[in-house]
TrEMBL record:
The chain crosses the membrane at residues 23-44, 89-110, 122-144, 156-174, 195-220, 253-274. CDD domains: TM_PBP2 (cd06261). Belongs to the binding-protein-dependent transport system permease family. It comes from Streptomyces gilvifuscus. Keywords: Cell membrane, Membrane, Transmembrane, Transmembrane helix, Transport. Residues 85-274 form the ABC transmembrane type-1 domain. It is a multi-pass membrane protein. It is found in: Cell membrane. Its main location: membrane. It comes from the Bacteria. This is Carbohydrate ABC transporter permease.
Length: 289
């Protein structure tokens, strides 16, 4: 007759508790994932249905797969949805690239270039975060209108290139960047610009990708500023096109959901492609909880 040592029994109990704990964790994560995916399922389900199927009492789990809704959306003469997708893509990509360039240079200058007014400039940048957007909205529109940038890409892109918060994030990141790499670059004869472009940027791609993801999503989802600047239907972004399907007289539910499903595809691709860099980049900002 064999007996089990007490320490072995303890290990077995701990192992059983570990398996149960992992199982509970996986179940919880699975439930959370399903709840997260429910809105996306409803968007796709309603996008492939008719209006009576969306609003009717006899709700069905699966749609009737009305693939003609796609052609109806792009053939709608009142809304140039294809053009609005192109406009949003141009605005989002240009805003992202411009913001990365402007804010990274500003953050690098505040973090690395020594001059007596650096702190004052930094405090001025922080002060912009305390000003509500509504306060600067009208002056910004008056300026853009006086420059003749209404219904143009310049009016949609240039006012949003600088972000005080993004500049702050870049400064915090560059403060933690190893100075030894930059000092070695200066020994080789590189100045601030050379060190930034050849040393700092190539070694900070994770953080740049994280900021690019956040900026792209924000620019793509922007509504109020494009609504005011894009007064001609040819200059509408996708968010303005989405709102045009809902009027005082009619609401085209199937077109709204189909347009929504198509409009979120670029965001899904960007997030899936850059999600690893997004997590790593945010962890490198230097902001701790």
């Amino acid at each position: 007759m064999t007996t089990t040592a007490p320490h072995q029994v303890g290990k077995q109990r701990k192992g059983a508790r570990g398996v149960l704990g992992n199982t509970g964790l996986y179940v919880s994560v699975g439930i959370a994932a399903l709840l997260f995916l429910v809105p996306f399922y409803l968007i796709v389900r309603n996008a492939l249905s008719t209006d009576p199927e969306i609003t009717g009492e006899n709700w069905k789990l699966l749609p009737s797969f009305q693939w003609s809704n796609i052609s109806e959306l792009f053939d709608d003469p009142t809304v140039e949805f294809g053009r609005s997708m192109v406009n949003s893509l141009v605005v989002a990509v240009s805003t992202t690239l411009g913001t990365l360039l402007v804010c990274s240079l500003a953050g690098y200058g505040l973090a690395r270039i020594p001059y007596k007014h650096a702190n004052k400039v930094f405090y001025a940048v922080l002060a912009t975060l305390m000003v509500p957007t509504a306060v600067t909205f009208v002056p910004s529109f008056v300026l853009v209108s006086s420059l003749g940038w209404v219904d143009t890409y310049r009016g949609l892109i240039i006012p949003g290139l600088f972000s005080g918060f993004t500049c702050f994030l870049f400064r915090q990141y560059f403060l933690g960047f190893p100075k030894e790499l930059e000092e070695a670059a200066r020994v080789d004869g590189l100045g601030y610009w050379g060190a930034y472009w050849r040393i700092v940027v190539p070694n900070s791609l994770n953080f740049f990708a994280a900021i690019a993801t956040i900026t792209f999503i924000s620019a793509w989802n922007s509504f109020l500023w494009p609504l005011v600047i894009g007064q001609d239907p040819g200059s509408w972004t996708v968010q303005i096109a989405l709102s045009s399907f809902m009027t005082n007289q009619t609401v085209n539910f199937h077109l709204i959901f189909m347009a929504t499903a198509i409009s979120i595809l670029p965001l899904v691709f960007v997030f899936l492609f850059l999600q690893r860099w997004l997590v790593q980049g945010i962890a490198q900002t230097g902001i701790k909880g």
